Amino acid sequence: MPCFRCGARQTDPVRGSSPWRRGVLADHQVLVCPACQRVDGWADALDHCASCGSAALVCRLGDVECRDCGHTREAVRDEATRTAGGVPAAAASGGDLSTEVAAALDRVLGRPLT
């Protein structure tokens, strides 16, 4: 899953905790890369808990749960909500994964770039 703001893809994790952060946008789980986390107000675009106002939400098994206060609600899954949520095109489409995979294979296999 790419970063919802810039579309950067997560690389293989190193041991320990991941520098990437999870959030919920329009009732869908999204990731935020470390570079986007350095921008002030990055969490303002995410959904917030109706109970405590925290952006520390996770979406799982059709529910959105606040990791700070434990408030849980059912996720809304309709086209109008996803469109109104303003998910950037890079996150919504996932970017051009086939091009990224082809370039990675060329690098690994030592093929000349075309």
Tell me what you see in this structure.
It is built from 4 helices and 5 strands; from the N terminus they run E-E-H-E-E-E-H-H-H. It has 114 residues and is of the alpha+beta class. Residues 80-93 have low confidence and may be disordered.
Secondary-structure topology with pairs:
Layout: E1 21-25, E2 28-32, H1 34-37, E3 57-60, E4 63-66, E5 72-74, H2 79-84, H3 89-93, H4 97-109
Antiparallel strand pairs: 1-2, 3-4, 4-5
The stretches of 5 or more residues where confidence is low (pLDDT under 50) are 80-93
In whole angstroms, how far apart are the ends?
27 Å
The count of strands amounts to 5
Radius of gyration: 16 Å
- Major beta-sheet overview: 3 strands, antiparallel
Following the backbone from N to C, one meets helices and strands in this order, namely: EEHEEEHHH
**Helix proportion:** 10-25%
The proportion of strand residues reads 15-25%
Task: State the domain count.
Answer: 1
> What structural class is derived from the secondary structure elements?
alpha+beta
Mean pLDDT: 80
How does the overall form come out from the CA principal axes?
elongated
**What is the tally of helical segments?**
4
**Widest β-sheet, arrangement of strands:** 3-4-5
